[in-house]
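Renewal narrative, Specific Aim 1. Our central claim is that a sequence can be written position by position from structural information alone. The example that follows is taken directly from our test logs and has not been curated for this report. It begins with the C-alpha cells describing the chain, in the order in which they were read.
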C-alpha cells in the first residue's frame, strides 16, 4: 500500500507508539499536486490534508490511509493557509494521551469575505487522542510568538506532577520554549531561550525527556544555598507554578538536538538540561556531527540508558545523507560540559 491520497504527495512523517496496544500511528500530510508551502501561504489557500495510517505489527503491515482533516480541524481550516505535523515524533503521556506536534499558518484578518493571507502567521499546536487513537482532537495555537516545527516532551515535576514542555523553531535566532499543565490543550506564552540558538530562518530540532538513575533530592544555587521555589521556576508563569512542596524540582531531564551555529546549519549538537522546570540551564553542546547538518530526531530507551539520533548531514550540504548514531547516557555526561547560569543569566550559544 502507499501512504498517500490520489493526486497528492506525502510529507512530514510523525509517528507515535501506543504502549498499551502496541500500535504505531504514523501521521503525515498529503499536499495536492506540486503546490508548495509558500504558494499556500501567499494565496491563503490550503492544499494540505491531515492523514494517518496504523500498524498493529510493529510496522510489518499498515492500514489504509485515514483522512482526519475534517475530524480534527473542521471549519477552522478556512483560517489556515496551510499546516503540517512534525516532522519528528509524537509521544504518549503518563495519562495515556497521545500527542502529535503540529503547526498552522493562521490567517487572523479578513476583509469582508476575503482572506488577507499577507497576515498569515505560523503557530505551533498539538493534535491529541485520549482513547488510544480512536478519535483525535486539536489544542489551541501557541500564541502570540511565531513558532513553526516543534517537538514536545513530558517532564515530571514536584510530587509527580506532569508538565508538557514544547521546543519550537522560530525565525528569531533563538529557540522558543513553552509549558502546558493540561497535557497540551493550551500552552502558556512562549519565551525565547538565548542558550539555544537558531540559524537564519531557523531549523527543526528534537527533544526527549528521561529519568536519570540518580537524582539530586535538594536543589541548590551556585553558592550552595537552597534555591527558592520562585528562583527555580522562572520559566513557568504564576498560573502554572507547581506549588511549594519540598522535593526535587524535576524528576526528568531533557535532551535536545539541533545545529549549534547562529550563522548556518552546521555542527549537530546534543544539549542536556537537568532542571527543565527551573532557571535556564542548558549545557554546552556535545557535537555529535561536525559539518553541515539539518533536521534530526531523538529516541530514548530509558531503562537501557541508550539514546539514538537520526539526522540529516553531509560534507558540502546538510541533505546529502541520513545518518544514525547510538550513544549512552554515560557518553552524554562525559562529553557535555555543564554551563548552567545563575537565575537571570544565560550562557551564550555556540558561534561558528
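The sequence written for that structure reads:
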Amino acid at each position: 500500500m502507499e501512504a498517500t491520497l490520489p493526486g497528492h504527495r506525502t510529507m512530514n512523517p510523525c509517528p507515535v507508539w501506543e504502549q498499551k496496544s502496541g500500535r504505531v500511528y504514523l501521521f503525515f500530510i498529503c499536499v495536492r499536486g506540486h503546490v508548495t508551502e509558500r504558494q499556500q501561504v501567499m494565496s491563503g489557500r490550503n492544499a494540505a490534508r491531515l492523514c494517518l495510517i496504523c500498524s498493529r505489527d510493529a510496522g510489518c503491515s499498515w492500514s489504509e490511509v485515514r483522512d482526519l482533516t475534517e475530524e480534527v480541524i473542521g471549519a477552522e481550516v478556512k483560517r489556515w493557509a496551510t499546516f503540517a505535523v512534525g516532522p519528528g515524533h509524537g509521544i504518549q503521556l503518563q495519562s495515556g494521551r497521545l500527542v502529535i506536534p503540529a503547526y498552522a499558518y493562521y490567517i487572523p484578518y479578513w476583509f469582508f469575505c476575503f482572506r488577507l493571507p499577507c497576515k498569515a502567521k505560523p503557530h505551533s499546536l498539538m493534535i491529541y487522542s485520549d482513547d488510544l487513537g480512536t478519535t483525535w482532537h486539536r489544542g489551541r495555537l501557541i500564541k502570540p510568538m511565531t513558532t513553526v516545527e516543534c517537538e514536545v516532551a513530558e517532564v515530571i515535576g514536584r510530587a509527580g506532577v506532569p508538565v508538557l514542555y514544547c521546543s519550537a523553531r522560530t525565525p528569531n535566532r533563538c529557540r522558543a520554549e513553552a509549558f502546558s499543565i493540561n497535557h497540551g490543550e493550551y500552552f502558556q506564552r512562549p519565551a525565547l531561550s538565548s542558550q539555544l540558538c537558531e540559524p537564519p530562518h531557523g531549523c527543526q530540532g528534537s527533544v526527549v525527556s528521561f529519568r536519570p538513575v540518580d537524582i539530586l533530592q535538594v536543589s541548590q544555587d551556585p553558592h550552595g544555598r537552597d534555591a527558592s521555589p520562585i528562583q527555580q521556576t522562572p520559566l513557568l508563569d504564576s498560573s502554572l507554578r507547581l506549588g511549594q512542596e519540598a522535593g526535587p524540582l524535576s524528576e526528568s531531564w531533557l535532551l535536545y538536538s539541533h545545529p549549534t551555529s547562529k550563522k548556518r546549519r552546521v555542527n549537530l549538537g546534543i544539549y542536556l538540561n537537568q532542571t527543565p522546570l527551573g532557571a535556564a540551564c542548558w549545557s554546552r553542546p556535545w557535537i555529535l556531527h561536525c559539518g553541515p547538518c539539518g533536521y534530526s530526531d531523538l529516541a530514548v530507551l530509558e531503562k537501557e540508558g541508550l539514546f539514538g539520533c537520526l539526522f540529516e548531514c553531509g560534507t558540502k550540504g546538510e541533505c546529502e545523507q541520513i545518518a544514525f548514531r547510538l550513544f549512552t547516557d554515560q557518553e552524554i555526561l562525559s562529553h557535555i560540559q555543564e554551563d548552567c547560569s545563575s537565575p537571570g543569566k544565560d550562557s551564550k550559544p555556540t558561534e561558528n
